[in-house]
Amino acid sequence: MLVTGLCGRFGLRATRARAWAWSWVWDGGRANALSHSWKQWGVRKGISSVVTKVSAQSRTDRVPSVITDRILGKWMIVCSGMVVGAVVLGGVTRLTESGLSMVDWHLIKEMKPPKTQGEWEAEFQKYQQFPEFKILNHDMTLNEFKFIWYMEYSHRMWGRAVGLAYILPAIYFWRKGWFSRSLKLRVAGLCGFVCFQGLLGWYMVKSGLEEKKDSHDIPRVSQYRLAAHLGSALLLYCASLWTGLSLLLPPNQIPNTSRMMLLRRFARGTGGLVFVTALSGAFVAGLDAGLVYNSFPKMGERWLPDDLLAFSPALRNFFENPTTVQFDHRILGIASVTAVTILYTLSRRIAMPRRTKVAISSLLAMVYMQAALGITTLLLYVPTPLAVTHQSGSLVLLSLALWLIHELRRIPK
Fold it and tell me: What are the average pLDDT values for consecutive 10-residue runs of the chain, which has 413 residues?
């Protein structure tokens, strides 16, 4: 009617106006049909279009970010838990002196253990060519060798499982488009770091397989490489746990008062101290320093033993002298207990959310439990079950310190 009225206004007849209007509608329909068929042809030929991109983007965005963040957070927590398992297995391997039983490294080939008697004898003969058998285990039987071999094998296979737990889900989630730009960089860094951790483990083992001329000391891996291997595992664990907590736990609305800023800085310092204390345990394990002085609080009959600075230059004592290494670990442990106690005292004067109070109370209880475990392990001459429990306790303590720092973090404006 509108078209007919306009045509009549300009002197056109009504019949011609109606015919023109129907022609316009028909042509428009043909144009729409032609446009639709052209789009279908483009899709069949693989030609991307704005429409297909928008529809694909809408399909990707159907999963709410809250749900994806929760899934990704749980994945990171599982990965961090698997790193804990690798650290504990590594400690058991070290305490049972099993780490040098596998004398070569292959990513795929060594995943199949020996099965026949001949294969086991061949593996045992390879082990007999290296210093640990010649100096320490020259009377070892094949069955005893199987035990230490399976201990190291379990540790290596668990390490491969950790790598798959990071890499395979990362590929899947990346293709689903669930990662933000910052999370992509973090996940790529974690996956690369877990591969580096595996290579660092073999680099550590190689140090214990080297033949040292004119030396009859018990073969052991370099304490420097052991500390690097443990330290990188702790960093991987902390980064994964922090990422998981950030995705799962909503931030607390804590006012930035002067007391809160002081508490936040002190909590970070305490967390760093707990990390260094755990790392110093690698030097204790690498040098068997826990067997030097098995008394507490004194070391033997003295507070400061005579051989505390026996090596020259003096700096070597902190990394190579078993007496100094044990002394340092004691001091760091006592400092950690003191720092957590002060942190708890400071927190009592500040109003905080319930979850944060639980974190700091748990940290206080755990630091005293860890100190008791360490002293008991020392007094009983480092029995393997207690030593493994003490090492696991250090990871629990580090986890609680990280949780508290996460609770106290400042919310960006």
Answer: 43 44 43 43 42 41 75 97 96 92 88 92 95 91 96 95 97 94 95 94 92 71 95 97 94 84 95 97 94 94 93 94 97 98 94 92 98 97 94 97 92 58
Output the six-digit token pair for 210: 């080297």
HEC string of the chain equals: CHHHHHHHHCCCCHHHHHHHHHHHHHHHHHHHHHHHHHHHHHHHCCCCCHHHHHHHHHHHCCCCHHHHHHHHHHHHHHHHHHHHHHHHHHHHHHHCCCCCCCCCCCCCHHHCCCCCHHHHHHHHHHHCCCHHHHHHCCCCCHHHHHHHHHHHHHHHHHHHHHHHHHHHHHHHHHHHCCCCHHHHHHHHHHHHHHHHHHHHHHHHHHHHHCCCCCCCCCCCCCHHHHHHHHHHHHHHHHHHHHHHHHHHCCCCCCCCCHHHHHHHHHHHHHHHHHHHHHHHHHHHHHCCHHHCCCCCCCECCECCCHHHHCCCCHHHHHHHCHHHHHHHHHHHHHHHHHHHHHHHHHHCCCCCCHHHHHHHHHHHHHHHHHHHHHHHHHHCCCCHHHHHHHHHHHHHHHHHHHHHHHHCCCCCC
